[in-house]
Amino acid sequence: MSFRAYTELSHCFSGSSIRFASHKPGCCQSTVSCISYRLIRSHRFVKDVRGKQIAKYNQVFSMSRDTVVAQAVSSNQGLTYKDAGVDIDAGSELVRRIAKMAPGIGGFGGLFPLGDSYLVAGTDGVGTKVMLAFETGIHDTIGIDLVAMSVNDIVTSGAKPLFFLDYFATGHLDVDVAEMVIKGIVEGCKQSDCALLGGETAEMPGLYKDGEYDLSGCAVGIVKKDAVIDGKNIVAGDVLIGLPSSGIHSNGFSLVRRVLAQSGLSLKDQLPGGDVTIAEALMAPTVIYVKQVLELISKGGVKGMAHVTGGGFTDNIPRVFPEGLGAVIYKDSWDVPPVFKWLQQAGNIEDSEMRRTFNMGIGMVLVVSPETSNRILEDAQEPNKVYCIGKVISGNGVSYS
Hints:
Elements: E1 10-14, E2 17-21, E3 38-40, E4 46-47, E5 53-54, E6 60-62, H1 65-72, H2 88-101, E7 110-114, E8 117-125, H3 129-136, H4 142-154, E9 160-170, H5 175-191, E10 195-203, E11 213-224, E12 239-244, H6 253-263, H7 278-282, H8 290-298, E13 302-307, H9 312-316, E14 325-329, H10 338-347, H11 351-357, E15 362-368, H12 370-379, E16 387-394, E17 398-400
Parallel strand pairs: 9-10, 14-17
Antiparallel strand pairs: 1-2, 3-6, 4-5, 7-8, 8-11, 9-11, 12-15, 12-16, 13-15, 14-16
């Protein structure tokens, strides 16, 4: 493991590895399946789906089980995340077992006491979204996704992100591609106002196919002990405020790829009902909510927060509630992006499956008092939209009205 703390983006070559560093600019999500068609890179330059010239890249596909199974699915049969190889229930069971060994596990971020403050840490990856990066050649935004998945987790405790560490693993290092990925990580750190402190680049021939890589990262933040947002004061009647997402963000892509394979459309096709291509809609980087959320917290009244990732509304919102409380979601209270409507129609996906897999257009949920909700809604200005999407009730789970 290598850690760096330089003040400029640098490239330090040593043997077969490369190190990147920059200054200034959670908790596990659902398990992902990495079985699908893969794009193998060659030594010629082409344009990506946005018309931008990219590095070594060709059009030879290695077909695997994902595509074959997708073709066998009847058009009348609704797809599920489990069909795509991801079992959310199994992931929840693993968390339950881990919690027996390490009590306190299960929040969006882990808290470590340090004087009158807590360090708050979270770690994550971007799942099989990287496979679409391979196919589209869009590598300069996947790093934003990586940072977002961790900093959005730790900010739910009220923590300000301090620094981020990344891990980039590949079979054969393509420096041009790696540079684009790190560029996105740097941008993500700038958006969350934290330092890219260091990380590791691992070149492992035989473990990854040519042209493939995987990413993970870890963010650490800090919050005063008397300012921690932990949901303990949430009561029935409190209001749910939703912050809009940019689209799919970074979860559910095993199901996304299954739907795409079944739809008969390509990534270059226009998104049905939208004004962008399918590739542009799917690769839109995850919104980093840090600055907006910290601003809202500074004005007081925020009791709890949920980062909507794997598990969707169904699993994530109840995580911040005390025992005996649930939520009612107002179904038509926000604008659902066209990409979700297309996915549901093309995959014939049930409403309940959509809500448990995707964010459906809301990437962060704040739990506040009715008085605070009125103030937030009145103060909201573009581009930081907010929606009143539901309320807290006595009971359990999430229902919709």
